[in-house]
C-alpha cells in the first residue's frame, strides 16, 4: 500500500468478527477492542468516515441462556436479540461520539428500494458524525433471507456506502499460500491483484470457533469489494500494531487491489448483492443476445424456466448445457414465462413473440461466461 492510498481514503468500512468481540463465546470483552476503537477515533480525527460491521450478537448473548452445546435455531435467535444490545453497548462505551445500530437481512439488500434506503441511512448518519454499527439481523432472518456471514455483508455494505477501503479483521495476518497453523513454511501474500481459482484454492474453512466466516468468505467479500473499486485488506485484528501500521500507510496484511475499471453501481448490485430466485434457459441465439448486452431477450429464444419468481426478481440466465451467462431482472413471473415456453415450439410460431423477457439495461454478464 502506498502512502497516497491512506491519505486519499475518505470512507472506510471496518469488519470485526465474533472472535474479537466475544473471544470466549460468553459475553463481550472490550480487551481486544481498544486498539480497534483507537483506530476508528484516529480515522475520524483525520477526516475519514468509518462504518463498523460488527459480528458477535450470538456469542455475546450465549451466556444468558442455559442451553446445550448446540442450541436450537430459536435459542440462537434469542441469543442474538439479547447479545445485540450488549455488543452495541460495548462498542458505544469506547467512543465519545454517537453510534447507531443498523440491522440488515439479505432481503433488505437485494430489494432495490430497500437497498437505496440503506444507502440513504448510511450517508445521512455519516454526514451527522455518527458511527454506524452494522450487523446481520440474526433475530429475524431465515435461510432464505440471510447473508450468512459478516465478511460478505461487509462487502455489500462497503458497496452501498461507496467506501474507498474495506478492512476485514481476522485472527491471522492475512492470506497465506497454505494454512499457517498447519504449515510452518506458509508464506503471507502481501498483495493480490486478481482473485482467481489459484488464490481461492489457498483458502481453508473457518478457523475460529465463535465465527461463521473463514478465509474463503473473506475472499468472496474481497471479490465483491474490489469489483466496486474498493481497496480491500485482510489483517490481524488481534495485533495492536496492525492498526498503527495502517495509519502510517503500511500494509500489515494482505491487500487486494481494486478493479481499474469498477463495475457500475447497478450492475455491481445485480451481480454481487442480489440472489437469483430462478433460472431462464435460452438457446444459442438467445445466449448471443444476452452476452451482447445491447439487446432485450425475446421469448423466441426461451427454452425452459426453473424455479418460482415474480416480476422484478433476479434470475440466472443459462444455456441448455448449464453455462451461466448472466444475472438479470425478470420482466415477467416464472408462471407466465413457463406458459410462454409451453406455447412455443420450433415448428409453431403462431404464439406472439414477447420482445423483452429481460431488458438490456437489467442484464449483468457474469465474468466466467
From TrEMBL:
Gene Ontology molecular-function annotations: ATP binding; glutamate 5-kinase activity; RNA binding
Pfam families listed in its UniProt record: AA_kinase, PUA
GO annotation (BP), single: L-proline biosynthetic process
Known catalytic reactions: L-glutamate + ATP = L-glutamyl 5-phosphate + ADP
Compartment(s) where it occurs, according to its Swiss-Prot or TrEMBL record: Cytoplasm
Keywords: Amino-acid biosynthesis, ATP-binding, Cytoplasm, Kinase, Nucleotide-binding, Proline biosynthesis, Transferase
Gene3D superfamilies: Acetylglutamate kinase-like (3.40.1160.10), PUA domain (2.30.130.10)
Broad class of enzyme this protein falls into: transferase
CC annotations in GO: cytosol
UniProt: substrate binding residues: 55, 138, 150
Family annotation (HAMAP family): ProB
Protein name: Glutamate 5-kinase
Organism expressing this protein natively: Psychrosphaera ytuae
Amino acid at each position: 500500500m502506498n502512502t497516497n492510498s491512506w491519505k486519499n481514503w475518505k470512507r472506510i468500512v471496518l469488519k470485526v468478527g465474533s472472535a474479537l468481540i466475544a473471544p470466549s463465546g460468553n459475553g463481550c470483552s472490550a480487551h481486544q477492542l481498544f486498539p480497534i476503537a483507537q483506530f476508528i477515533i484516529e480515522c475520524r480525527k483525520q477526516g475519514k468516515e468509518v462504518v463498523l460491521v460488527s459480528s458477535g450478537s450470538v456469542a455475546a448473548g450465549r451466556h444468558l441462556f442455559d442451553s446445550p452445546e448446540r442450541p436450537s435455531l430459536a435459542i440462537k435467535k434469542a441469543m442474538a436479540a439479547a447479545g445485540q444490545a450488549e455488543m452495541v453497548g460495548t462498542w458505544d462505551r469506547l467512543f465519545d461520539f454517537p453510534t447507531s445500530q443498523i440491522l440488515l437481512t439479505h432481503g433488505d439488500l437485494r430489494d432495490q428500494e430497500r437497498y437505496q434506503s440503506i444507502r440513504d441511512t448510511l450517508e445521512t448518519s455519516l454526514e451527522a458524525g455518527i458511527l454506524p454499527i452494522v450487523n446481520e439481523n440474526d433475530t429475524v432472518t431465515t435461510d432464505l433471507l440471510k447473508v450468512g456471514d459478516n465478511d460478505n455483508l461487509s462487502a455489500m455494505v462497503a458497496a452501498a456506502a461507496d467506501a474507498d477501503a474495506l478492512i476485514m479483521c481476522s485472527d491471522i495476518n492475512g492470506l497465506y499460500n497454505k494454512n499457517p497453523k498447519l504449515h510452518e513454511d506458509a508464506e503471507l501474500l502481501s498483495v493480490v491483484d486478481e482473485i482467481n481459482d489459484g488464490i481461492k484454492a489457498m483458502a481453508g474453512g473457518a478457523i475460529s470457533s465463535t465465527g461463521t466466516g473463514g478465509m474463503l468468505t473473506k475472499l468472496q467479500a474481497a471479490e465483491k469489494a474490489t469489483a466496486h473499486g474498493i481497496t480491500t485488506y485482510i489483517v490481524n485484528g488481534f495485533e495492536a500494531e496492525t492498526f498503527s501500521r495502517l495509519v502510517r500507510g503500511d500494509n500489515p496484511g494482505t491487500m487486494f487491489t481494486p478493479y481499474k475499471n469498477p463495475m457500475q453501481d447497478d450492475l455491481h448490485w445485480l451481480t454481487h448483492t442480489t440472489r437469483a430466485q430462478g433460472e431462464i434457459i435460452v438457446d444459442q441465439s438467445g445466449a448471443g443476445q444476452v452476452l451482447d448486452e445491447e439487446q432485450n431477450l425475446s421469448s423466441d429464444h426461451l427454452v425452459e424456466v426453473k424455479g418460482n419468481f415474480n416480476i422484478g426478481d433476479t434470475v440466472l440466465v443459462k444455456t441448455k448445457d448449464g453455462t451461466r451467462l448472466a444475472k438479470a431482472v425478470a420482466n415477467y413471473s416464472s408462471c407466465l414465462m413457463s406458459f410462454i415456453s409451453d406455447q412455443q415450439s420450433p415448428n409453431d410460431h403462431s404464439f406472439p413473440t414477447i420482445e423483452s423477457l429481460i431488458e438490456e439495461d437489467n442484464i449483468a454478464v457474469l465474468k466466467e461466461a
